[in-house]
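Postdoc handover notes: sequence design on the structure in folder B. Input tokens:
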């Protein structure tokens, strides 16, 4: 089987990570892969914020938990030590699709390097909040960006989950 197709069919969403640091070289390799995602008219409208600092990661996790309505102490990032936040420029008509393709490429790149990943939602709400807007200002990010997702990355705890059976009647030919 082709290595790309093998990565696509083998990747799983991981929701349990071990507390082990991911080497910066691997994080950089994953991010680089994300920058090659297709985008409308080649606009490259999506940006990636790499969060590897535990204090910042925990602050974002707590904000995400509150938006999700979970009980105190729950970690919506499942213990992953790395959070890659994807935002996209709202002025582009394809910004949601562009950011979604970046998310997909980040997850595939992580899997190809032996790491687990999961797309965590609520980035839209997070970066529409004052706290989120202030976070972007701290980084010097200006513009009208919408949060597309958080790609959490780390070494998975346990075995890679088995794939769910593929649903029928999802492909049609004429």
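Designed sequence:
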């Amino acid at each position: 089987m082709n290595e790309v197709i093998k990565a696509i069919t083998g990747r799983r969403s991981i929701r349990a990570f071990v507390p082990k640091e991911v080497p910066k070289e691997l994080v950089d390799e994953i991010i680089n892969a994300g920058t090659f995602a297709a985008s409308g008219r080649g606009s490259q409208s999506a940006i990636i914020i790499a969060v590897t600092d535990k204090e910042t990661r925990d602050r974002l996790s707590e904000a995400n938990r509150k938006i999700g309505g979970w009980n105190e102490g729950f970690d919506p990032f499942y213990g992953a030590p790395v959070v890659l936040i994807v935002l996209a420029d709202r002025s582009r008509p394809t910004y949601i699709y562009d950011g979604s393709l970046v998310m997909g490429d980040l997850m595939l790149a992580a899997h190809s390097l032996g790491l687990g990943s999961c797309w965590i939602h609520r980035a839209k709400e997070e970066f529409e909040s004052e706290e989120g807007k202030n976070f972007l200002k701290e980084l010097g990010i200006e513009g009208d960006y919408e949060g597309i997702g958080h790609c959490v990355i780390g070494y998975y705890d346990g075995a890679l989950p088995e794939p769910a059976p593929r649903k029928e009647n999802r492909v049609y030919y004429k």
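Context for whoever picks this up: Residues 3-154 form a domain with the NADH Oxidase fold (CATH 3.40.109.10). Don't rerun without checking with the PI first.
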